[in-house]
Structure formats: C-alpha cells, structure tokens
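Journal club side-thread
Mid-discussion, someone asked how the predicted structure for our own chain would compare to the paper's figures. Pasting it here so we can look after the session.
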Amino acid sequence: MAQTTPNHTQTVAGWAAHDSSGKITSYIFKRRENGVDDVTIKVMYCGICHTDLHHVRNDWGITMYPVVPGHEITGMITKVGSNVENFKVGDKVGVGCLAASCLQCEFCKDSQENYCDQIQFTYNGVFWDGSITYGGYSEMLVADHRYVVHVPDNLPMDAAAPLLCAGVTVFTPMKDNNLLESTGKKIGIVGLGGLGHVAIKFGKAFGHHVTVISTSPSKEKEAKERLGADDFIVSSDPKQMQAGKRTLDFILDTVSAQHSLGPILELLKVNGTLSMVGAPDKPVELPSFPLIFGKRNVKGSMTGSMRETQEMMDVCGKHNITCNIEVIKPNQINEALDRLARNDVRYRFVIDVAGKSAANL
C-alpha cells in the first residue's frame, strides 16, 4: 500500500505509533497538495478517542503502521480548492471520522455515506489516490470539503473537538429514534465516559428524563449535579435494577467492555429500544427472554453522516453543548493514552496541537 503519491509534496510534523507497543513519537511525513475539491486545515486541537488507543496498539488487527491517529479535529482553513464553495480561508471547521466514500451507492446518495461499504476513515484508511490516510495528531490536514463541517462561532475549539466523534456518535441514534422531535421520554445512558457524558447533555437539551446506568456508584453525584442527569442506577445493585424494570423508553449503551445486555434490556418498557454505540472486542451476552417478553429491539449505530454531523454541530451551537475535556500538550500523548486505558479521564483528552510544547517526544 502506497503511503504517498507524487502529489504528496507537503512536509508535515505529527505524532505516530510505529508498532503494537502503541508508543507515540514525533513523525515527519508527507501530505498531498490541496486539490480542486480540498481544503487545507491548520489543526488547532484533536481529541483522543478510545478508537485511537485500539489502533495504536493494533487491538483489532487492522492497523497499518506507522499510524497517525486522530479523528476529532478542529482547526482553521488556510487554503481552498477551486471547486469549493461552502468554505473560505479563515473558517473554523471540524473533521471527524470520514475521509472518503464511493459517492455513488444508495447510501452515499441518501446522505448515509457512513454506511458505504467503501467508506475510508480519516486515519488508517486508503484515500481515493491509493495513499494511506493520516489523522489529526499533526499540524495540518488536507481534506475533501465534502467531509468537513463548520464549527459554530460560539463554541470553543478545544471543547468542540470531541463532538466530531463522541458527539455525533450519540446524537445520531437519538435522532434515529425520534428523540429530537419528541420530548418527555425516559431515556437511559449506559456508561458515563467520553460518549455517555455528551449523551446526557443531548438528552436534557432535547427535553427528556435522563437516567445514567453505571457500575460506579461514585459517579452518581457528578452525573446529577454536574451533568444534569435525573436519576442514577448502579447496574451491579439488584435492588436498583429491579426498581428500574420497564421504566425506560430508550437506552443508549456506550460501554466498550464486555457485558451482558439482559439486565439492561429489562429496564426497557415493552417495545423499547436499546441502541449500541460502544464496541466491545468480544461478543456481548444477549439472552432471548428479555427480548421476547418485552418485544424489545436491539440495534447498532456508528458515527453519523456528514449531514448529521453538521446538524449535530449546529444543535451544539444552539444549546451551547461542548465536551468536558482535559487539554494536554503533544508530549503528554503517551501518558494520556495510558490513562485512557485505565478510564482515568473526565471525560475526553484533547491535544493542543497548535500551541504544542517544543519538547520532543
């Protein structure tokens, strides 16, 4: 697989992992010239997603090293191609998970390009020109304008960065289940992490009663007092789980660790829906009786389309929704990844790329 083409003439400084140890080091590489459909972006901030951790350590067996992670990118446009009409130099923009798709299939034509079977991602993907894609752990990025969104002026660029993945990943299933149009539903959020904390904010902004379902009793105070959750269920407490049976219309499961769906399904009303956005690396337990006796649905959802991503950003601008973040310098990336592996972050690390420390990794 070609890492570059003759059109890759721009030298860029970034940070990459070179093997499954996952250790991130400084990396100089090439990006393509800005094409007619491209925009060039000076990267300001980049969130650290759990997917980054999986890729740098090759947990899924698909990593193409060296890998430059990062798909929660905010920055400023410095150049636009001749075919680009919806962006201009100086615009605040964001880049999420998607870098390219076929543009011809039923999903691409229906603004569901995230489900295109030729979808390519912002890093560890293969772009149309055959080159491997490199992500936002870098000082600049060249992106096709069709996979770039505007960041509302009132949102801070650092706290908006994780919205490009964590935000749209929880926004899309809420939209799919009509939670944007209706109000007063009882919804549950499983897991209080990078995705879960944003889901609470969306649920409250859309006018719903939000219950957090967590294995950690220590998170109850923060869930309610800081994030605005209405209720809290400790999933390891049989009495609390029993008291919550058949009380929820919709549950969003954000947990990426292996767990059983049976007890969670029992919290749903008849005809309720459980939507999974977490990605455990081992199969989850899905007993049949909670499905059958509750006429319940289990479905999955991945990151949203570009249209949905822009809609999500606009909603965040309207309701002033951002992520709770811890800003780090590039020379702290390895420490942050280790802490992320231990779930030691509230709730998203964001790399200050533009103001980076001069120290080498």
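Post-session note: The first strand starts at residue 10 and ends at 17.
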